[in-house]
User: What shape does this take?
Amino acid sequence: MSKPSPQQSPKSFEHALAELEKIVETMEVGQLPLDQSIAAYRRGAELLRYCQSALKEASQQVKLLEAGVLKDFSIDGEPAVADRAE
Assistant: This one.
């Protein structure tokens, strides 16, 4: 079995997901030789870790934004719009 060349890191989450989908499609056909199947599986596992990490980071960013932005606040002493009596 020849040693595979090192794979590049994906450019983005979307690129990683697209590559992962292609790997899954190729492996589902079941026509790859064993060494290529193992290499594809290894690459798929790397891409999966990358995607999971990107999603976790995005989730943490959303939580931080929600905590800082979605609080009721007042401007110049005026109550928040939802708190105003009509």
Observations:
- Helices lie at 13-29, 34-69.
